[in-house]
UniProtKB/TrEMBL annotation:
The lineage of its organism: Eukaryota, Viridiplantae, Streptophyta, Embryophyta, Tracheophyta. Gene3D superfamilies: 3.90.660.10, FAD/NAD(P)-binding domain. This is Renalase. InterPro entries: FAD/NAD-bd_sf (IPR036188).
Amino acid sequence: MNSVVTKVAVVGSGIAGAVCAAALARNGVSVTVFDSARGPGGRMSQRRELSEDGKELSFDHGAPFFSATNSDVLDLIHGWEARGLVAEWKENFGMFDPITKKFVDFEKEGLSKKYVGVPGMNSICRALCQEPGVESKFGVGVGRLEWLEDENLWSLTGLDGQNLGHFMGVVASDKNMVSPRITDVTGKAPPLDMNLAPKLDGKLPDIPVNSCFALMLAFAEPLSSIPVKGFSLKDSEVLSWAYCDSSKPGRSAMSECWVLHSTMEYARGVISQTGLRKPSNATLTKVAEELFQEFQSTGLNISQPFFMKAHRWGSAFPAASIAREEKCLWDKKKRLAICGDFCVSPNVEGAILSGMAAASKLTEILCCL
Ligand SMILES: Cc1cc2nc3c(=O)[nH]c(=O)nc-3n(C[C@H](O)[C@H](O)[C@H](O)COP(=O)(O)OP(=O)(O)OC[C@H]3O[C@@H](n4cnc5c(N)ncnc54)[C@H](O)[C@@H]3O)c2cc1C
């Protein structure tokens, strides 16, 4: 396509939506990205915090890194690397055995290349959402998608009832766009009624999810007793992984920042008591204390942090993949693609593959109009 011909709405600026939007724009399709969050990235976000004494801190509180084996994905990653958006995180990783108090499995944990966004995990999505032909609107949640039969177009309405415009095609990059589970969280109906896409109805079940709590910690001094920059915790019921966020390339070395991830079982236990709605500050404080206590119980000489805050990821990892072959759901007649990690695999690579597949479906059809 030689010139910009049409408009597609991409709902969600996580890596699936951002990759899809940029690919569409590069093929001459003009795109508007909407995200209810304040910035891009979704589960590849970076969180900015201010300590009590005014220190600026940032944490990759979602995905700490990503790896890839698919050659198309690797091509993309190498392109991002060349633009300075991505770098390899070349540190030692291992597993901590609480019985022997030793770090083991260095080789296994270090096997795959670990990539990170620079200077934060969100930098890739941010750059993709700023590419020519992509208009991005953050803090704008899509509340309703309607198909206008006579006009052969989609009409989008914001969560506050505002008109977001008419679009020839739509990409929904979050399963909550159609999941009844969202009603338990927000009290509202999902934005997309699957009766509008009868061909896809039944292909998108209520996907089970695994949750996770992330604990952000900042220390005045490096934790010098820890010989690795990321480690799993063997047999812990509370903590699964710990990462030294500030050891990633391009991060500030002013403070030593760590991010700990809870086990899915621990998160499930807390959510079964507190419910799906946004957790209270009291819940997050209790979770922070419990995760930190488990970190200290390793006996690794962990000093007191000057900053500590927990975050809940209610839908951290989809527990099913619904379109491994096709990589996205697609209704050609209505020009509707549904993509995200839940289509392929519960990681960044799966989300990228799904976003690429959605872009290719739309490009194919919009080319011929
Ligand atoms: C704690 C944690 C650790 C992880 N560790 C790893 C790891 O080590 N390696 C790895 O590869 N992956 C990891 N992952 C998984 C990885 O982050 C995800 O697989 C990937 O980021 C999913 O991208 P996505 O675009 O499919 O979805 P998301 O990033 O969830 O993007 C969906 C976007 O849609 C937006 N949205 C939803 N509804 C609406 C609406 N109605 N209107 C507007 N916007 C809307 C959301 O705000 C969000 O930004 C981890 C995730 C978490 C949470």
